[in-house]
Amino acid sequence: MAGQKFQYDESGSTFLYFLISFLGLVLVPCTFIFWPAETTPQDETKKKQICHCEGCIKKVARMKKPEKWKGLKKTFQRFILALGWLFLAFLVYKVQEFDYEYANFDPYEIIGVGLQASQAEIRKAYKKQSVILHPDKPTGDHQKFMRLQKAYEALTDETARRNYELYGNPDGPGAMHFGIALPSWIVEKENSLWVLGLYALVFMIGLPTAVAIWWYRSSKFSNDQVLLDTTQLYYYFIHKTPQMVFKRALMVLAASLEFEKGHNPEIVERPSDNIEIPSLIKQIPNLGEKNKERPLCFPYSIKARALLFAHLSRIPLKEETLDLDRLYIVKLCPTLINEMVNCVSQLIMLAYAGRIPRIPSLDTIEATMKLSPHVVQALNEGKSSLLQLPHVTDDIIRHFVSKKKQIKTIHQLVALPSEERRQMLRTLTEDQYNDVMRVCEKFPHLEMSVNYEVVDDDDSGVFTAGAIVTVTVNLHRSSLEELFHEKHVDLTKTSEEMKEKRESQIIKSSGWRRPQSSWKGKASKKNKPNHVIKNKKDKVHDKDAEKEKEAKKLANGREKKMKLKKTKLERVEDIENDSEDDDSASHSDESEAGEADTESHRDEKNGIDEDAEWEKFQRGLTKREKVLEGKSKLSHSVHSPYFTDDKQEYWWAYVCDRKKRSLITAPFQITNLVTNEEVQLKFTAPMKPGIYTFQVCVRSDSFLGFDICEDIKLDVKEAREIPTAHPQWEEFSSDEDEDEDDDAGVGNDDDESEYTTDDEVTDDSD
């Protein structure tokens, strides 16, 4: 509006309130996020539970000691946050001073007289204070002089004194006014150049520069913070070699651009690499350093490949140089391997769609997945999975092979009786043996149940050609301690029963074997454990209970059927009464009765499957809640003494065809398997009828020998014919056709009567 003036804060108290609120909104969340956390008692208990092998001791010491730049970063963060809180405290102190000065207006206290002072004493005290506080004097203060003058008026002027007694202010009741919470010096002429310069520096230079830097960095990376150039490199080599073996996949992994200094400034290149890298290459056979493919022949790729092979072979490196580079490369490997797996699965799906000519095989994606546990556990291809245990070496593993038994997996080792197990590990000390057993108890044990159906279909158990099959994989994760601990073993059982139980558990938990159903019939009932064989009376009781449940469900279905029949018969009677044609009424009666039978049959099925549908609905709600919560990446810590940091165990779930060596569904990475997890995998059924066998696989990215699989069989039927129209519509259309035919016949007669030939005319005249 014309003539309106903005009132700025002369004293600056309102601006201080603005600064306090702004600093509070910034400092409180930043303190919770960026203030370095100290170790908690839970962390101390975790450290006590780890094993005391050489690799774990070095890893704990390395993780305790932060890197130099991380220590400086934490110190700088603490300094900035402490400085911010000190400034906030100073602002609060200044605001309290302003509030005290302006809220506590006492004229007697300001002038320095008592309540019973006379007018002469007030004038005398005022003159004394004004000489000191006058702005023209060296000790003068303009604000205090104005307060002194207002206090003198409140005690000498009758109107001002009356206002003070009534309203507490010599000026009378204060009117509401609005202003800007900025100090007045911002709009002064002398400071305008500095204010404009600061505005241009922050909003015209600083903010656009920060946005440009962020966009430039984020545009180079994928969602998993992998360079897009690295992803293109994976696509090229996977398409070039569809049948990729383990060693070839490792060479492609080492060629990732994250290991090149031009793309990653954290990579360190030292002059000592020219001496140490060639000597390391001589220790590694079949490294492939003479490969001429680009970028496999580049120096950064050869260095990364040599360090990865040294890591898998557990070759000791110089801690100050090459070992630091090894730790950094190994730290990035799980993310890069997951990106490589995604690239392989996408290329396979594109090949199925006919967009690319070459189809990567199932061996390629499984060789890529194999890289992750080998890198995490620092084991080369072909090595025994028992080397994942602490203090276990190749010399000790030789004792595991005898004429009677061959211990090849950790499950088989833990399933042994304690005396035999201790005899196998007799070269270890008691402390070392305890470390082995503590680590064994923490290894995972997966149990998988698979259910496959066609969702959103009347008969979900029938698989037609081209239908969408949904495979639901339910995983239950427990530890080997819960299954094989000595506390759970009944010592009164015979040795034969314990042996049978151990073999069944090993068969069930070992990876890449057929389901347990294939072993039925090989063991007699006498050799089965007592807790497995049920009493005949219990079996009969269970069967009777199941029969009663089925009878109740059938009775409920019949009641619904009778009600529906009654309603349908009533509708049929109404149609008969209203209809004029008996034939059409009888026809509608038959159709309605047929519909009543079919609908009653459907309702009977719906009555039986109500509980199952309700369970599916509840599962869908829980899935939606999990999706809204987000995907967690915390599961269980992995015993990995040669890995850089703490590793959480993840799993891949997918469906494949072993016979054709092809991938059916894209691998789904499970990152939050703590105890139970449900995964849904969907694929299209084959287009030709027949019986097909697929395999549901769950593969670990952290352990060797803990993968599981289960076969599923699909009896694919021919696709159903799509109905062109509803039966009632067909009846209605047929009636319309008859009416049209009748109308057409009448029209023809009229035409014949109107248009006659010449012969007919002569006949009529005769």
From TrEMBL:
Q: How does it sit in the membrane?
A: Multi-pass membrane protein
| One annotated GO biological process | SRP-dependent cotranslational protein targeting to membrane
Acidic residues: which segments have biased composition? Answer: 732-766
Residue ranges with Basic and acidic residues bias: 492-505, 539-559, 598-614
Q: Name one GO molecular function term.
A: RNA binding
Stretches for region Disordered: 492-614, 724-766
Amino acid composition bias (Basic residues), ranges on this chain: 522-538
Main location, first listed in the record: endoplasmic reticulum
Q: Which residue intervals define the domain J in the entry?
A: 106-168
Cellular location(s): Endoplasmic reticulum membrane
Q: Name one GO cellular component term.
A: Sec62/Sec63 complex
Q: Name one Pfam family in it.
A: DnaJ
Which parts pass through the membrane?
Answer: 15-37, 75-93, 193-216
The superkingdom listed in its UniProt entry is Eukaryota
Looking up InterPro entries in the UniProt record yields: C2_domain_sf, DnaJ_domain, DnaJ_domain_CS, Ig_E-set, J_dom_sf, Sec63-dom
Supply the alphabetized keyword list. Answer: Chaperone, Endoplasmic reticulum, Membrane, Protein transport, Transmembrane, Transmembrane helix, Transport
- From the Swiss-Prot or TrEMBL record, give the protein name: Translocation protein SEC63-like protein
| Source organism of the structure | Armadillidium nasatum
Q: What is the lineage of its organism?
A: Eukaryota, Metazoa, Ecdysozoa, Arthropoda, Crustacea
